[in-house]
Write a structure and sequence with these properties.
Blueprint (H helix, E strand, L loop, with lengths): L8 H18 L3 H14 L4 H13 L3 H14 L4 H13 L3 H14 L4 H15 L1 H17 L3 H15 L3 H4 L3
């Protein structure tokens, strides 16, 4: 008879809850996702990723207050998670707090220098505060990263935006 290794039930349940929450989130069942994340967090209150993901579901429901609380709590538990700074920056941007948005995008980029979406979104915040010329620097770099990472949809979006502003076909000109 061979002995099998099994995971403790709480780990399996936690993983199952996170998987279920993610599936519900992807299906746009944000209330269901929040319920699953709450159960997961109740059993593992220091799971920074689960807290951040619950914050993202709150954000999708337009509940900026709870989203911000979750992002702040997640950052306190794991200050090295670039995606949490990115998400909080997006929340700041949505309430027109562009300075804090830029600060969080900067932090995300410092933690993950190839974070194309952080450059892209920081460009939008720069545009709001300083104009399109400042934004173009980040948008060009975001386009370069998207292309290198094989995200051709976002690459095209960035190049279209750059072309609209500059009037130059950036992909054909060899700029990107």
């Amino acid at each position: 008879m061979s002995e099998t290794t099994s995971l403790p039930t709480d780990i399996i349940n936690h993983r199952d809850l996170l998987r279920s929450a993610k599936t519900k989130y992807q299906a746009r069942d944000y209330h269901g996702a929040i319920a699953d994340y709450m159960l997961a967090i109740a059993n593992h209150p220091k799971d920074a990723l689960a807290i951040c993901c619950r914050g993202a579901a709150y954000y999708k429901l337009g509940d900026g207050y709870n989203a911000m609380n979750d992002y702040n709590r997640s950052i306190a538990l794991d200050p090295t998670a670039a995606s949490t700074y990115y998400r909080r920056g997006s929340l700041y941007y949505s309430i027109a707090d562009y300075q804090n948005a830029i600060g969080d995008y900067n932090h995300a980029i410092k933690l993950q220098p190839d974070f194309a979406f952080a450059y892209s979104n920081r460009g939008y915040a720069y545009r709001e505060l300083y104009g399109e010329q400042e934004a173009l620097i980040d948008w060009r770099f975001a386009a370069k990263l998207f292309k290198e990472q094989g995200n051709l949809v976002q690459y095209q979006h960035m190049t279209d935006l750059i072309d609209l502003i500059t009037g130059i076909d950036s992909s054909a000109s060899g700029m990107l």
